[in-house]
Amino acid sequence: MCRAPHLTGVSLATARKLLIRAGCGIRVKELSSRQDVQGGPGRPEPNQIVARQSPRAGGAGDVVTVWVKPLCFQSADPGPPPGEPLVSAGPTELISGLFLDGGPLRMSPRCRQGEPAAGTIEVTDAVTGAVVASRAVAAGKLAEIALAPGAYAVRGTFVSATVNGRPITTPPVTVTISAGKTVRQDVSASIP
């Protein structure tokens, strides 16, 4: 019989060390499937994070069951946040950034968000094609562009992302701006 140490929030590797020190056995389950992953095809990785445990910290038992969070599989450049356009009450404006989306697949204990790149955001009237705004943005920053209500096409050109020596330009994205609404619509270029 052992006293279970506090394991929630630590890596599976750390949890194993703490349990050995406490004289406890361990059983590992993946949080999403609730299936026992020890020794199976979904064998847990040492860097997976413990989401919960039974018995709780301080509880007694011979074996402590830990549920680990599934690993995140995402591209090296994960692109903009999902669900755009994001519309909220506020000034009548567009908030936009430049993102690369793609690259080699990576596995990590936590999913991460993409970082905006440096470049220029250009907004054109969706009907006439006339440029109504252009903003330079630094890496890690978003452009805030006040606009009249209407339909617009947004595209961007990267400063340091190039193909054959030419800056990458994103495909245009159409967005509608309503009075009293702030719209977050990023632009992105897919990379292999």
Brief summary:
6% of the residues lie in helices and 51% in strands.
Describe the structure.
It contains one helix and 17 strands. The chain is mainly β. The strands form five sheets. Strands 10, 11, 13, 14 and 15 form a five-stranded antiparallel β-sheet that branches. It has a four-stranded mixed β-sheet with strand order 7-16-8-12, with no helix packed on it. It is elongated and about 75 Å long. 23% of the residues are buried.
- Approximately what portion of the residues adopt beta-strand conformation? over 45%
Q: Tell me, rounded to a whole number, the average pLDDT.
A: 90
The shape, in one word, is elongated
What is the rounded Rg?
24 Å
Give the key terms.
single chain; 192 residues; mainly beta; 5-stranded antiparallel β-sheet; 4-stranded mixed β-sheet; 1 helix; 17 strands; 51% strand; elongated
Blueprint of the fold:
Elements: E1 2-3, H1 12-22, E2 25-30, E3 50-54, E4 60-61, E5 63-68, E6 72-78, E7 86-89, E8 93-96, E9 98-108, E10 119-125, E11 131-137, E12 143-146, E13 150-163, E14 166-169, E15 173-177, E16 181-184, E17 187-191
Parallel strand pairs: 2-5, 8-16, 9-17
Antiparallel strand pairs: 1-4, 3-5, 6-9, 7-16, 8-12, 10-11, 10-13, 13-14, 13-15
